[in-house]
Structure formats: structure tokens, C-alpha cells
Amino acid sequence: MFKDDFKFRYKGIPFATYKAESYYNNAVVLSHEHAEIEIITIVSGEADFYIGGNTCKGEKGDVIIIPPYNLHKIFIHNTAHTVYNCVCFDLKIINDESITKGFLTQMLNVPFLIKENLSFASKLYSYQVNAFNAYEGQKKGWELEVIGNLSLFFATLKSNDCFVKAEHIKNEKDFSKSVIEYLNDNFKEHITSQTVSKYLFMSNSYFCRKFKKTFGDTFSNYLNAFRLEKAKTLLRHTGKQISQIASECGFDSNSYFGKIFKIFYGITPLNYRKKVGS
To answer: Residue 61: CB partners within 8 Å, gap ≥ 6?
Structure first.
């Protein structure tokens, strides 16, 4: 189960960190996307990363790069203890217009996975860790240390010819954005793939194929995960009864909510509330 303190907190510059840690099998970070670039270093264990329709396995010592607006999710399985550190930031702080513009227009890309055995991987790993630690330590001059290490990170990518022109995939981005916006507005209601496909003026079969390709999951499974993330927030931050939370998050019954919650997180909603409230 992952720690839940993932909210990005900017302090002075548009840069933030979080540390993810899992002691349970089948831990999932729900598919999402954002305008910031995300760089992850695997400290221990392993995780499957689904990024922009591609899947890669990150292991200890590897570096994962998630460009802006790439739909991504993370899946932990068959491991006792997985830890990874993440930095997430606005590209403007590296002061390279060609890189910033290239990523934001989705015309520039990098390998999502930098394996530990590559000659320059250890440099990238160190630069990310240095930036992470500088931010966490908040010593005088930490901002310059963060920016300096990020600049060295991207300089290393450039010197090793890691930047490539990407095919423009605006249609896929528009599709994922439309689906997520619809779910945000309607997750409390009765929703099926037919409901969303009709809203998007697509046949249901085409929608389901496109959804699986884009999100790397079936619509029904993703919808459950989406609702459960909303429920976790209510369990953490409100005193509402669990039956009320189940209803507000679109689950037909309290028993089904509890069953699905335990399947996804390995713990009951009540025990989860006790755990995060302690």
C-alpha cells in the first residue's frame, strides 16, 4: 500500500518531490497525466510503468522519465518492498526553450526507461537523487542545487542522443482528457462504457478498444479504481460513514464497495481509515 502524501507542494520554484513505498502486492497508482515532467529513480524492488501506451519494468537502479501530458500508471506486483523517489517539475526551470517547447507540443520525446546497465544511467540517477535531496533538505541555496542537477540531467540526455522527434498524438491526448473529464463530472452516477461511448459519439466496441489501448486497462476496472481513489480521499479527510462514502462514489452497495476496496488495496475501508488516521 502506498503512502498517501503525494500532493505536490511547491516551495519557491515549480518543483516537488514524493517518495512512494509499497509493502503489498498489486499496489496501483491510477492512470493520470499532468503538465509537469516526472523523473523517478527505483531505490528497491520493481514496478511496471504504463506510459503513453507503452509498458516497461523499472528495477533497482533504473531511471524512469515521464514527459508532460503522457497518461501513465504504476503497478507493483510480486515484490515484498518497493521504494521509488519521484521529482516532478515545470520544464521552464531548466531554461532550455527547445526542450520545453518540444515536450509541451509533444514533438520531442525521450526513452521512458533508462536501465542501470547503460553507461550514463548512474549519472542520471545521481542527478535526480541530488535534486530530490536538495529539495527535501531545504538548505540555503537548495534552489540552485536543484536547478543545477536538473540541468546536468538534461545535458547528459542530450549528449547521449536521447532526444528524438515524436509523432504527434493529439487525438490520443484529446481522447484521454475527454474521458477523465467525463469521469470527474459523473463518477457518482451509474456509468458504463456505453454511457461514455455515447457521450463521445463512438460505437461501444470502438470505444472499448481505444480505451484499452490508451489507458492500458478495461473501462470497468479503471472506473472502479477511479472511484476508489475518490473514496480514499473521503476516508482520509472526512468523518462520513463508509456506507455514505460508497454511495457518493458511485458504488451500488456498501458490501460491494468493501469487497472491491480490499481487492485493490489489500485492506478494508474501515481498517484503511484507522491506519491513515493514526
So the answer is: 42, 116, 121, 122, 125
Summarize the confidence of residues 129-136 as an average pLDDT. 95
- Which three three-digit cell numbers place residue 62? 533504473
Would you state the pLDDT for residue 34?
83
Between these two residues, 278 and 114, which has the higher pLDDT value? 114
Distances (CA, A) of 168 to 67, 104, 165, 211: 14, 11, 9, 19
| The three three-digit cell numbers of residue 107, written as one number | 514533438
* pLDDT, average across residues 125-145: 94
Q: What is the CA radius of gyration of the chain?
A: 20
Reported as a pLDDT band with limits 50, 70 and 90, residue 275 is confident
What backbone torsions phi and psi does residue 102 show, to the nearest 5 degrees? -60, -45
Summarised one tens digit per residue, pLDDT across range 34-58 is 889 999 999 998 888 988 777 888 9
129 is written with which cell numbers?
A: 537523487
Terminal C-alpha separation, the chain: 15
| β-bridge pairing 113-114 and 63-66 | antiparallel
Give which of 260, 71, 273 is closest to 173, Cα–Cα. 71
Query: For the chain, which domains are there?
Result: 15-165 (2.60.120.280), 170-277 (1.10.10.60)
Q: What is the mean pLDDT of residues 200-228?
A: 88
- Whether the per-residue pLDDT at 270 is higher than 90: the answer is yes
3-state SS assignment for residue 57: strand
- Grid coordinates representing 80 are 515484498
Q: How far apart are CA 71 and CA 58, in angstroms?
A: 17
